[in-house]
Amino acid sequence: MKQRLGIAGALIRDPALLILDEPTTGLDPAGMRDMRVLVRRLVDQGITVLLSSHIMSEVEELCDRLAIVRSGSVIYEGRLDELLRSTGQHYRLRTTDDERALEIATHQPGVGEVRREDDGLTVAADEDAAVGLSVALVEAGLGIRALVPAAASLEELFFRLTEGDGPATNGAARPKVSA
């Protein structure tokens, strides 16, 4: 109730900017849903909302721009969709013979890193290379069970950016995503 009361008090003043720090903390699932609906409605009404959160799925759902902070320094600032696209194209691949598919994929032109996963393979490739790979697999007599684009989640990107080797990785305060 304190969260709701605080937001109600801030909205009485008809602000152009609303700063929310962990707005769903301590709320039950219905309250979390209601808070997300409220944030979207406020944005639709033209209010700028600055949201600070450690809940990556919430940031991904609510924000179009974000800043990632590590040890007090902004290490990324920009559009969420641009950050998600920056990881390059990856595909999840499942075939009738993943071991043989791994061998074929590693020698296929345009295909980058190929990793074995619990449920198949992950292949780094642009769209044309993925088409070429699918043709090569079929020509080799393999059945393709799935070949689907696999974008990195915001959480994966967050950890790549904040846990990499560098001067800012010193075990300091937990980084936050603000949007």
Can you characterise this structure?
The two termini are about 25 Å apart. This protein has helices at about 1-10, 30-45, 55-60, 80-85, 100-105, 125-140, 155-160; strands at about 15-20, 50-55, 65-70, 75-80, 90-95, 110-115, 120-125, 145-150, 175-179. The chain is built from seven helices and nine strands, in the order H-E-H-E-H-E-E-H-E-H-E-E-H-E-H-E. It has a five-stranded mixed beta sheet. A four-stranded antiparallel beta sheet has the order 6-7-5-8, covered by helices on one side. Mean pLDDT is about 85; it is low at about 165-179. By secondary structure, the protein is an alpha+beta fold. The longest helix is centred in the first third of the chain and has 16 residues, at about 30-45. The protein is elongated and about 65 Å long. Helix content is about 40%, strand content about 30%. The chain folds into two domains: about 1-85 and about 155-179, 3-Layer(aba) Sandwich (Rossmann fold); about 90-150, 2-Layer Sandwich (Alpha-Beta Plaits), CATH 3.30.70.
